[in-house]
Amino acid sequence: MRIRALEISVGALIIAGMLALIALAINVSGLNLSQKGGGYTVLARFDNIGGLTERAKVSMSGVQIGQVTSIRIDPKRLMAEVEMQIFDDVDYLSIDSSAQILTAGLLGEKYIGITPGFEDDLLENGMTIEDTQSALVLEEIVGKFLFNKVSE
Amino acid sequence: MIQFLQRLGAKAVSRIAAVGRAGQLLSQSLIAKPAPMTMLPLLVRQLYFIGVLSLVIIIVSGLFIGMVLGLQGYTILVDYGSEQAVGQMVALSLVRELAPVVTALLFAGRAGSAVTAEIGLMKATEQLASYEMIGVDPMRRIIAPRLWAGFISMPLLSMIFAIVGIWGGSLVAIDWLGVFSGSFWANMQASVSFSEDVMNGVIKSLVFGFVVIWIAVFQGNDCVPTSEGISQATTRTVVYSSLAILGLDFLLTAMMFGDF
Predict the structure, then answer these.
(1) Over A64-115, what HEC string results?
(2) What is the chain A residue with the closest CA to B185?
(3) What is the pLDDT along chain B (260 residues), one digit of tens a residue?
């Protein structure tokens, strides 16, 4: 009987450890395996992405509708090309939607905000959002402000 | 002067020999012919002594460390109006650093010292020698189950520490200080990555568990078989393990997060 109690307590320890790992995975790190596969790819080109990273949010009206999957330079146009994955159930973005790089809060992370357009044709896999607005870079704003001051 | 150099050299040589004996012990107990059927009950017994009995101190200290982190993080972050980031601060510092390191330090104090004292006393009372006399290999009977038990239970304890700590942090931040629970958990989930943060914590705790139990078993097996020798060996276990944990933690952190 003594051995049995021993085995049960050891089993409980191992199960508790495994459960803790699963809880860390799901509850703390927000691991979501189902979200990875689904979605269609949309491209957008920006003059300046200013600190946008892979896995950043893509949102519309503040609701997340996808995430950034890769960022690279387009060697022909010399612009940043951002590839994002939009969830499959968001299948109502028209082709004249516009993409902006925004900042969450004053010092928060960068994300892409999509503003819906009015056309009837919809964005499909591999298409490019033409109307984009780059990230606001603080140095550029300060530079413009100083330039205006001097020219006054 | 010559004598001083002689003593220094003799000390260095004996240290190197001790490292060699530690490696020998490891290879003899782990690589030697495995006998899983006789080993399993012994392993379960050691898992109980090393793992289950350490659970209470791990849970209590995890809870308090999480609560302190929540409180301290809140008082700093509230000045910048971003107190909802307290969740991500608590979770990241626990998962990456505090859970493996503090668990390993507690583990060295709670389980490592006990293992050293037990094996040292077995050596002093010549139980190890009598095992050998009746044809039982003490490496496999005594040493190997303890090594495996430490190696298995340390990551489990570290995960439990992390989860209890995060729960303690949420208790303080959400229920007591009134941080909005939605942004607490959402910020945490957005910033903690499973493959980078959680798995690196698991790797750290595996390494620490291995080092701590190896030092504990070796010091017990290598002690001078007197009551004074056992007490010195127990002290050495705790001191060496703590130093090894902190040094290795820096190395591992530099390897995992240092590639800028």
Answers:
(1) EEEEEEEEEEECCCCEEEEEEEECCCCCCCECCCEEEEEECCCCCCEEEEEE
(2) A28
(3) 889 999 998 888 888 888 888 888 888 777 766 666 677 888 888 888 888 889 999 999 999 999 999 999 999 988 887 777 888 889 999 999 999 999 999 999 999 999 999 999 999 999 988 988 998 888 878 888 898 899 899 999 999 999 999 999 999 998 898 887 777 887 788 788 887 888 899 999 999 999 999 999 999 988 888 989 999 999 999 999 999 999 999 999 988 887 65
The reported pTM is 0.74
Q: Cβ contact (<8 Å) for B48 and A3?
A: no
Residue B59, chain A, CB below 8 Å: the answer is no
Closest C-alpha among B232, B49, B230 to residue B123: B230
Which residues 6-45 of chain B have a CB within 8 Å of chain A? 41, 44-45
Of B45, B47, B95, the CB nearest to A28: B95
Q: Do A29 and B45 touch (CB under 8 A)?
A: no
